[in-house]
Structures are given as structure tokens and as C-alpha cells.
Amino acid sequence: GLSASVANAKDLAEWLGVNSKRQFNFAPSARPTPLRLFVRGFDVVNYESRVQAMSRPTYRAIKTHCENKEPAIVFAPTRKHAKQRALELLSYALNDNDEGYFRNVSAEDENVLEQLSEKIESDAGVKHAMTFGIAVIHEGLSKVEKQALFLAFECNACSLMICEAASVWTLRQKAKLVVVSGTQLYDAGGSSAADYPVVDVLQMTAKCGRPGIDEHGTCVLMCSQAKKAYYSKFLHESFPVESHLDHFLHDHFNAEIVTRTIETKQDAIDYLTWTYYYRRLTRNPNYYNLTGTSHRHVSDALSELVESTLSDLEVSKCAQIEEDDETGENEISPLNLGMIASYYYAQYTSVELFAASLTAKTKLKGILEIVSGASEFDSVPIRPGEVEIIRRLLNHSPIAMTNRKTNDPHVKTCALLQAHLSRVSLPGDLPRDLESILPTALRLLLAMVDVISSNGWLSPAMCAMELSQMLTQAMWDKDAGVLQLPHVTKSIALKAKDKDVESVYELLDADDSVREDILSDLSKRQLSDVAKAANRYPNVDCEHKITNASEISTSSTIDVEVNVSREWEFGDSVSLLPPVNCSRYPIPREESWWVVIGDEKENRLCAIKRVNVVKSSKVKLSFASPSEEGARAYSLYFMCDSYLGADLEFEFDVSVAKGEDPSDEDESSSEDDADDDDEDTDEDADKAKDS
Description:
The chain is of the alpha/beta class. It has 25 helices and 17 strands.
């Protein structure tokens, strides 16, 4: 079910196929605890000044509605505003000669609050506020720190909790009073404010009232004067749910074209008729810019939408539209870029950007900038005060960017990726942004490798694979390989370098005394983590052979068989590898490999295949032989997508003989046909003579 009352519940239920007897839609006033809502508008144009103006009214609301120190929750736009609001409320309490107003513990239980505050280590401002009874929650805190703050609030030792707006979905606590101190955030451009999503505001108001404890809950919502009427109406009345499918239709159509669900334009129109978008067209035509609700108006609108969407896919070379001579229908077929976008869940505009920007001479700098320019990063937020931080990151980045507009979300993405590779400590909300950027960047790099391979370029493909390794391990390719192990810092890596140990293999092969000296600063538990990660590090052996070496000619193919095996230290009963050891990567990552054959001299990628290796694997690759006879040198690369220094490279030569020219075959076949015709003519002449 949905978490809010909607005006068009019947449309939603019918589209989902729910029987009318199983449909239940409640009014907004139907709550476990009755809600009293106060909406206050602020006629201040400047964003920061408006947020600042909400400070004292927030304090007054708490004093008015929580006379007996009942719990209250305040939602602030960002982490900075949350911490700033805590200091302001404390100063107001101090002016009232009641600095302990928010602290609700007896003298005997004072040590309990002190013990909980000792668990706050990463943020001194949060720790300071907690000692005065204010729990400040933001996404930069660790799980242990959040649990300590939640416990202090639940036992009412801290009667006030101040949260940044992004934390509302992780918050389970409720309070008698909720103050929404502002309903806007700075958008990705950093030049204007954007409203909270409607569902976020609903979730905030849902925190009002504790069932079984409070007779009613109170919500004080503070917003700009222009939005006061909107929120007053919206929070008291249910709104309809509308479709935004037309804004994201390109990627939907592309996926359906790849799966052959859509093969003609009529199939595309039929596909739309099954969507919620089609159901709402006639119900709310003004919302979808429809001039009428007749069958003709709807048909014209759908035809125009399908034509424009398919035309964009054709221009971006994701799909091909051809007219069938027999039926006269337009047949739609997927192209390589469309299949790549669908397979990796990439936006079609990103794959189009890759195909247009990549060249045979693209280096690491170009690949990093092109990945950062993908459409997936259009919505990366740029908050107030982050422009200067991004500028400092760019000034210290090893790779200088061509575009240095610090209010551009793509520039911020590139700056954060380079900071990740350099293991720079990021302030504020930037670590959270980086956590959302990294998995998307890795997925786009896999798509980029396929785009480059389609063009047959070797050098940029290898750069993209190496960048995948670097982003997973949070290090540059020039850094020491031992940094991939947990708890190994740059100082330990320098100590290892002094002893001629740089890679993980060299650390494993070193004498015990040397290894103990290098890792002498680590505890026993940390040494155990290092040993476990080192044993997990791939130790791969690769053998190859040309299966048709004696038959290679200018008109044949070259068939290569690659046998891969690895030393397995986890027992025969284990059939799957554990996740990659990458402590700085936000989510678990599975290890995979590329088998690549290329001509390094000509920068030509001949064959590529992506495989997963547990114990052993056999891979067969086949590619066209060169058009000129003679000896040719090729390189075989076995590239990991997750670890640095584990790659293998081999060289092999092939002897190409002269093959049959297709034109010669055509001439010989025509000569044979002519000889047959001459023989038939002679036989007919002989028969005529005999008769």
C-alpha cells in the first residue's frame, strides 16, 4: 500500500489490478494520533536569511507546545543548518537563564548522559550539543554514534532531536512536536532553492504524535510565504498521483526494443496503452498538456510522443528504424549502443556521450572526464559552501580538468573521484555524495569498455579497465600495491618501499622478519585482517594456445584457447569467491576478469571476453586474421576489474599464409560454369550430327 492518502486511489488500484473490494483509501485526517498542523510563511527572499529567520520561531514553538519537556523533533535542510540550529536554540535557552531546558535527567542520572556522549567521537559539535540535551542527527555519524543519540532521545535524556532532512527515512522515533524548519534545499546548480520532495514532507509530518501517550501531535511547518497556501491545502487534502513516464520514456523504450517487445511503432503505442501514464491522460489532460480528451486527441498525443522518442533513439544510434517493403511498416531493431545501455542500466544519453567523445588516443584524463560527464550525475547536489571546497580539491588533483566550473555537478563528480583515488578526507556531506557516485561510475566504466571494444581500440580500453581497478581500491596506479590491504597506511607503504616491497606478492614472499618489521605498528587483530586479505588476493595462472596454428591464412580466423586457474585457499567446499577486499568502496563488489587479445603496435583490440574465475576456467576467443601474409605479433592480457597488480600479459606470434582471394574464387567459379556450358553445347552438336 501507499503511505499517504491520494485523490485517485481508484485509478491506481485498477491499473494494479486490485479488486474493488480490496481497495481501502483513508482521508488525511485518519491518523492513530490526531494531528494539529500550523503552517507559517516567511516573506524573506534570500534562502540563508529565510532559514535564519526561522530560528527564534522554532524555539517559541518548542516552549509553547512542549511545556513539560515532551520530546520534540526539528528538521533542518542540511547538516550545517542542523548544527547551527542547535547552537541557536541553546543560546536562546541561556538568555532565558535555563541552559538545561532541553536536558531531562536527574542529578543521579547525569553520568548516563555523559557516558552516551563519550561515544560521539567524529563530531565535537554534536557531542557538545548532546551534553545540553540536544541530539543532532546527520548522515556523517557512524552507526554507533547514531544509536547513542537515539537512546538518549528515547529515554528522554535529550528532549530535543535536530535532524537534517535527508535523515527522515532512517528515523523511527516519534515526538509530540515536529518542527519542519524550512522546506527547500539548494539544487544541483547552487544558484536557487528546490522544494523538498512531497513524500519527504509527508514522512516528516508522520513523526508527530506518540500513539497511546499523546492525545494529539503537533506539527509546525515553516516555509516561504509563496508556498504557504500550497502546504496548507496539500497537508489537509489528498493529492492525485500522476505519471512521469514521458520524462524517462527513452530508456524504457530502448530496453523494450532490445528485448524485442517493441519491433514497430504500433508496438510502442500498444506498450503505452498498458501504462499508468495512458490511464491518466484523459483524467487530467491539463497536467499532460493535452488540448482535449477525445480519442483523436489522445491518439495524436501518443503518436507524437512515440515519434519523438524513437527519433531521439535513432539519432543517438541506439536503435534503427527501417521501412519494410512488403508490409510498409517501420521495423525497429536495436543497435550496439542501445544493447550496451540496456545491459548496464545506463541512460541512452550517457552511452551516446561515450561513443561521441572517445577516440583511439583517449588517455586516463579523458576517460575520467567523460565518465564524470554522464547524465547519471546531473542531479549530484551542490550545497551552499561546497563551491570553495570543490575548488580546493581541483587545485590539489593530480589530473587537471578542462572544465573547472565549480557549480557544475559533473565537475564535482570528477573532483570527488580524484579525491577518492588520492584518499583525501572529505568534509561535510561530500562522503555521502561519493558513496552514491562510486557504484554508478564503476557500472558506467563497464559500459565504456564495451563501447571502446566495439570500435576496436586497445589503449583506451586498457585505461578504462585500470580506472575500474583504481576506483575499487581507492588508489592511483602509481601507488604501492600494499595499500590494497586493510590497515596499511601510506607510512607503512613507505616503510615497505625502503625494504623493496611494493606489491602484495612481494609482501607474501618476503622473509618473516622483514614482514614483521613492516607491519610492526599493527595490532594482532589488524595483522589477522591483513593476512586474510592477502590470502584472498588473486594468484592466477594463465596458459594459452592457438588451436588452428597450421591453418591460419589471410582468409581464415585465429582461434585462441585460454586456460585460467587460481590457487584457492578457502577449501574445496566453497564454490564462490567472497567479496573483493575493498574497505573504501561503499558496497560489496564481486571480482571479474577481462581476457583481451590485441595488437599493441597498431592499437587494435582484436577480441575481448569478460569471465568470472573461481578455480579454473576455459575461454575461447576467435578473431579475423590480418589481410596481409607473414608473421604477426599479438598480446594476450588477463585484466582484473577490482585489484591492481594482479594482471597478466603474454605475447605470441602467428604465421599468416596466403589464403584464397574471394575475387579469385568468383572468377574460377564463373570459368567452371563457362566450361560446363561449352561441354553441354558440344554434346548437343554431337547428338545433332548423329540424328
